[in-house]
């Protein structure tokens, strides 16, 4: 029996961070045997906010590819590709966009939140429509398992709507995908912001050196009400405690209790999370160094993954055109 397909991508807007790792990447690595796996570099989606700086996107392609390989994505088991090199996705986006209303997109809570925090005063057509393009990203390869963070749930809901509408308007070509949330569907930022994000400058990137991890954790906010070391803390609002839960789960219950009792100070608590992150990052650094020394190999991984993906995309578009009676000759 064919395996189900698992697929996700990341916007090429900067290095990947712990939020990506705990929200999605860890699951992708863990499940790459269970599913036929696809991971893509979302350069088109990056253009929705970075269309003035395509060179910036270009520069980050190999960085994110190294992040994937360092995190344990195995190119033998996962197909890696670049979104803009699969033109069928753009074609499918156009077909889908005919039956998605502007109102539905305007009310998408993630689009609204991102528009609010962006530096643009106006809403751009491509940005408003990116969830439609995301539906095409998922469906062109008929992926059904989508490991994502919580902010993606409205987009998955829209994809399911689009699939149902397409199947009912034309022919049943697509299956409905499901989001696969991790135990940390939204990792808090080092500044206490609800979401660690590339765009907000509150992230610990996966390529951080020991010094960078130590420094960023030292500077991270904690419970602001805790002025003295022995004051009882409120772990539920502290980013450091959230990191213990995500990256040091075996000790997190003890740390919670000690913080609430005031028997562990913030500095000691930070030292312990720094040690756990070092354990996570050490094997990643080794894999990164291996691939960073072999840029040709990294290019080949992307080229062969993109070729493989195009073959799948063109097969799906043949079915789509058949279903829509657009197969003229
Ligand atoms: P940007 O701010 O440029 O949109 P981002 O940090 O939100 O960048 P994306 O590329 O948009 O990253 O997201 C890629 C994937 O990582 C998505 O599935 C998203 O839900 C997940 N993700 C990103 N940040 C977090 C986080 N802080 N916690 C959990 N999951 C996250
Ligand atoms: Mg995002």
TrEMBL record:
Enzyme class: ligase
Annotated keywords: Aminoacyl-tRNA synthetase, ATP-binding, Ligase, Nucleotide-binding, Protein biosynthesis
InterPro entries, per the entry: aa-tRNA-synth_Ic, Rossmann-like_a/b/a_fold, Trp-tRNA-ligase, Trp-tRNA_synthetase
One Gene Ontology term from the biological process aspect of the record: tryptophanyl-tRNA aminoacylation
Gene Ontology molecular function: ATP binding; tryptophan-tRNA ligase activity
Pfam families associated with the record: tRNA-synt_1b
Keyword ATP-binding annotated: yes
Highest taxon of the lineage: Bacteria
EC number annotated for this UniProt entry: 6.1.1.2
Reactions listed under catalytic activity: tRNA(Trp) + L-tryptophan + ATP = L-tryptophyl-tRNA(Trp) + AMP + diphosphate + H(+)
Recorded GO CC terms: cytosol
Family (UniProt): Belongs to the class-I aminoacyl-tRNA synthetase family.
Protein name listed in UniProt: Tryptophan--tRNA ligase
Species assigned in the record: Paenibacillus typhae
């Amino acid at each position: 029996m064919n395996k189900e397909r698992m697929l996700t991508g990341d916007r090429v807007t900067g290095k990947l961070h712990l939020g990506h790792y705990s929200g999605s990447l860890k699951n992708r690595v863990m499940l790459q045997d269970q599913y036929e796996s696809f991971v893509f570099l979302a350069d088109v989606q990056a253009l929705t906010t970075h269309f003035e700086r395509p060179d910036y996107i270009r520069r980050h392609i190999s960085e994110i590819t190294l992040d994937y390989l360092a995190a344990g994505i195995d190119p033998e088991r996962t197909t890696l590709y670049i979104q803009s090199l699969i033109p069928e996705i753009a074609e499918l986006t156009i077909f889908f966009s005919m039956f998605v209303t502007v109102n539905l997109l305007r009310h998408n809570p993630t689009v609204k939140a991102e528009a609010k925090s962006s530096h643009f005063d106006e809403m751009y057509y491509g940005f408003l429509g990116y969830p439609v393009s995301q539906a095409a990203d998922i469906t062109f390869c008929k992926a059904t398992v989508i490991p994502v963070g919580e902010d993606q749930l409205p987009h998955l809901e829209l994809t399911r709507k689009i699939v149902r509408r397409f199947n009912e308007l034309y022919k049943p070509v697509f299956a409905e995908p499901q989001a696969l949330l991790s135990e940390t569907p939204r990792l808090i930022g080092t500044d206490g912001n609800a979401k660690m994000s590339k765009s907000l400058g509150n992230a610990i990137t996966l390529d951080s050196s020991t010094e960078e991890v130590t420094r960023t954790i030292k500077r991270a906010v904690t419970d602001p009400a805790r002025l003295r070391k022995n004051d009882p803390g409120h772990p539920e609002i502290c980013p450091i405690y959230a990191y213990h839960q995500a990256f040091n789960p075996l000790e997190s219950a003890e740390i919670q209790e000690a913080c609430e009792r005031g028997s562990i100070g913030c500095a000691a608590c930070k030292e312990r999370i720094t040690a756990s992150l070092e354990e996570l990052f050490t094997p990643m650094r080794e894999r990164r160094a291996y691939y960073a020394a072999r840029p040709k190999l990294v290019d080949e991984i992307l080229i062969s993954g993109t070729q493989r993906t195009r073959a799948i995309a063109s097969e799906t578009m043949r079915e789509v055109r058949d279903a829509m009676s657009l197969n003229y000759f």
